[in-house]
Amino acid sequence: MNDTTGCHFRPDLHALAERYRAFAVHQAAGTSPTLRRWAEAVADDPALLAPLASLPPGKQQPNLVFAAARWHGARPGDADSLRELFATRWVAFAATVRTRATQTNEPARCGALLLGLQRVEGPVALLEIGASAGLCLIPERYSYEFNGEARCEAVSGVGGPAGGAGLVTGGAGPTNGAEPVNRAARPVSGPAGPVTLDIRLGPALAPPTAVPDIVWRAGLDLHPLDPADPDSLAWLRTLVWPEHETRRARLTAAAALVAEEGVRVTAGDLMTADLARLAAGAPRDATLVVTHCATLAYLDEPARRAAVEEIGRLGAHRLSFEARGVDPAVPRIDAPLTPDTLFVAALDGVPYALGNGHGTMLTRP
């Protein structure tokens, strides 16, 4: 897409309006009344659409725009508050949109990853691209409750002596490796208390019986976030939709746990040699699994295909949780598109679950 600053460029307000209508219907409906009202207001008001169209195309997405609006004090769901923000504080608002990213780090997506990791022979070397603050890099450190009954308990610390917390590598270093770890299979908690993920499974999906044996992990992100940094944590909390207080509390507890464990995410670009360089630190006797959750959507179609091919060259399994139609290796799924089937989880391009964008509802494709 072209730069909107060109003097002869006419932004496609109709396409942008349809994007916000689709967000209202397929994502916000039934789960965030305030964001649905905002999205419908934007879609119906050229005075709101026009300034948004002046932003770079990759920065026009509703999640980012609405998080930035709340960051600057706009009242969720109040269209007049949004208009007032655009009219009086556009420069500050636009600067936030341009310099920040969604980087929604939803730990509940680990439920979808857990189902996929059950299909991989361990021990596992886990590498996440688009890792943000690393909250999806410690799936075995969370406890899981499936359909309010079946539980899968977390293991103890991911590094150091048995039962203790320690450093998980994946940051800059001569090898990007990790020492073998000993872990006791017992429930754990971080400074904010135990982190339990409540996942609803459809009737054809069986809950896993154990968490995976992860012996090494690494994260890659263009702009990693430090979960221990107050500003980064505040932004992550703002990205959680207004009504989702349970998600916000879960994110806060997960961030405290990640900070306690010392999980590190490396700054780098998956479209360069950064990915292969990071993967080279994985132990050779472990199964390398590259994961990405809601990451490919930020790339154009040729870049998505290139990313999938690059992961394939690593000889790794690829575990994805992306919006339907985004992963070029995942075949088309005929199931109705609803908020609870918006995303597809796939292992090496083969779908094994559909779910909502937050991973709290999973069903068979």
TrEMBL record:
Organism: Streptomyces lusitanus
Domain of life: Bacteria
This protein's name: DUF2332 domain-containing protein
